[in-house]
Amino acid sequence: MGMLCTPLPPPNPNPTSSRERDLSLCISLYMDIHGLHKILFGVVHLKLAALALEDEVEYMDTSETPWYWYYKAKCGVWHRVEDDPKSFMSSDDLERYYHRNPQGVIIMNTAGGEIQINFAASTQIHLKTGKEKRIKRSFQTDTGFRCKCDEISQSPPAHWNDFDSETPYQIFSLRKDSSEYQIVERFVRGDGLLHDPIISIKRIQNLDLWELFCRKKVQLMRIRGQSDIKEQMLFHGTDAKNVHSICTFNFNCRLSDKKRKAHVYGKGTYFAKHASHAIKYSNTRQGTKVLLLARVIVGKYKRGHSDDCTPNDDQDENIHDSCVDDALYPKIFVIFDSNQIYPEIISK
Questions:
Q1: Is the CB of residue 127 less than 8 Å from the CB of residue 114?
Q2: Would you say residue 8 lies in a domain?
Q3: What values do phi and psi take at 254, rounded to 5?
Q4: What does pLDDT average to in each consecutive run of 10 residues of the chain (348 residues)?
Q5: Where is the protein found, in the record's own terms (predicted)?
Q6: What is the pTM of this model?
Q7: Does 23 lie in the same domain as 115?
Q8: How confident is the model at residue 40, as a pLDDT?
Q9: 6 lies in a domain?
């Protein structure tokens, strides 16, 4: 038979915290089941438990404001850390550390070395190079904002000649007595197995394509969690009429089936390990064949199939970067993203 008691006031219908909501619920349960003397005993223990755990629970910002972390680039514009392909942390990561100690200093080990984050000073310092960036915490006000100057490549490669940023691209003929010409020639003959006479070797200089290539490489390394990713110098034979378009816009990896000569290993752009194979796909009426030597991010590859539109068409996980003719001894590579390609040399 239950104990008769004077009813307690009902729990606060709008508790101001999750802790009050939990206590109110417990009071109601004790009233229904055990009676008043059990209520008081339970509330005391709940209060003590809450106080004991208070120091162990990590502080959490319960506001709905979406806080983000930004760094100040050389251009003077603040960019979100997650929009930088080189970023080793996200805003969520920094928020967790910040809430633990808003005035603290943390050191992160990255592939590029140790990075010190000082929340009190609002700085990020590369401990090896001493390079410092300003950082700040702010809420996002511009949706869809992307980093447009992530400093992956601020200047053209050192070996480029008389670079002109006002032109889409430049082509420079290499002198036969230059070391660059001789290195390319040896590569074409040795690795490329080409014995045809070489009329000229020219370097392509397109800073836009170069920066896109560098950015893609860094992005894939971050996605894969690697400090480097496999890159190869590969050959592509083409007609002379296509050279201007390739030098300006890069290779078109998304040609329609009607324009493709073949797509045995996938519907992308084909490159060959050997120049002797690639040169077969160059047809010119003048009798001079055009051979392009490209820097290609091949990454992790798999054997391709004729209906592959990406290197992961038959897989749930995005783990491959290219398709090949033979996974063990590849001689043909198929690339589906033009940003994985930088057309570097034209040989005739």
A1: yes
A2: no
A3: -125, 45
A4: 42 47 43 40 37 39 64 71 71 88 87 84 85 82 46 68 87 92 91 86 93 88 83 93 93 68 84 92 79 95 89 74 93 94 92
A5: Nucleus
A6: 0.57
A7: no
A8: 36
A9: no
User: Given strand 332-335, what is the order of strands in its sheet?
Assistant: 170-173, 201-205, 341-347, 290-297, 231-238, 269-272, 332-335, 322-324, 301-303
The helix/strand/coil state of 100 is: helix
pLDDT at 77: 66
Q: Which helix (H) or strand (E) holds 105?
A: strand 105-110
- Token couple for 320: 């491959």
Considering the domain boundaries, does residue 290 fall inside one? yes
Task: Give the per-residue pLDDT at 160.
Answer: 87
Q: Is the dihedral of CA 329, 332, 337, 341 positive or negative?
A: positive
Q: What is the pLDDT of residue 317?
A: 64
Same domain? 90 vs 195:
no
Report whether 290 contacts 348 (CB < 8 A). Answer: yes
**Does one domain contain both 44 and 105?**
no
Q: Which residues sit opposite 94 in a β-bridge?
A: none
Clarify whether residues 224 and 326 are in a common domain.
Answer: yes
pLDDT of residue 295: 95
Instruction: Please say whether the beta carbons of 339 and 213 come within 8 A.
Output: yes
Please choose, from the candidates 303, 248, 294, the residue with its C-alpha nearest in 3D space to the C-alpha of residue 271.
294
Q: Is 188 inside any structural domain?
A: yes
Residues 227 and 92 in one domain: no
pLDDT at residue 336 in the model: 92
Domain that includes residue 31, residue range: 18-53
Q: Are residues 272 and 312 in the same domain?
A: yes
CA dist 205 and 162 (Å) reads 10
123 shares its domain with 272: no
Alpha-carbon distance 142 to 146, whole Å?
10
DSSP one-letter string for 217-232: HHHHHHHHT-S---EE
What is the tally of structural domains in the chain? 3
Query: Where do runs of H (alpha helix) occur along the chain?
Result: 18-33, 36-53, 91-100, 179-190, 207-224, 243-249, 275-278
Give Cα 28 to chain centroid, integer Å: 52
